[in-house]
Amino acid sequence: xxxxxxxxxxxxxxxxxxxxxxxxxxxxxxxxxxxxxEAETHQIEMTTRQALRFYWKSVIWSIIASTVIIMEGFDxxxxxxxxxxxxxxxxxxxxxxLGKYVITADWQMGLTQAVSxxxxxxxxxxxxxxxxxxxxxxxxxxxxxxxxxIGKQAVKVHNLR
Length: 161
What we know:
By secondary structure, the chain is mainly alpha-helical. The protein folds into two domains: 9-45, no CATH class; 55-159, no CATH class. The protein has seven helices and four strands. The protein has helices spanning 9-14, 33-45, 48-54, 56-75, 85-91, 105-133, 135-156; strands at residues 23-26, 29-32, 93-95, 100-102. Helix 4 crosses helix 7 (135-156) and helix 6 (105-133) runs antiparallel to helix 7. The longest helix is centred in the C-terminal third of the chain and has 29 residues, at 105-133. The chain is elongated, with a radius of gyration of 28 Å.
């Protein structure tokens, strides 16, 4: 019988049964709630320098994940470039009727919808990958791949034409 579920009848009669409010289950059975409170107090009282020194792996992971997410956000800005004159001059075609460079509607639609198609492919591939590798390694490998693809795109963007 699991000792955590075993209630001693003598304790029950004396009214000394411990409740979930006063005890928490830890990795090795019951742990005192005071220990958890002490650890929380210690973390709250840490200086920024102490926290960075103690939780440096978490800080690095957070910076990497945030940077990749910020870079992914730049991917959605492509539609805003369609009105910028330097972008139009480099990637657009001269329109005699309007007397200026334009990017045709089919190219605009194709470029903006490529993001949606990529999301659909990513969701399908990501579901399979999470089943095979687990959430942690899927996240790590996908963030690395996303960094590489966006970095490659940034380096090669001037070679489109």
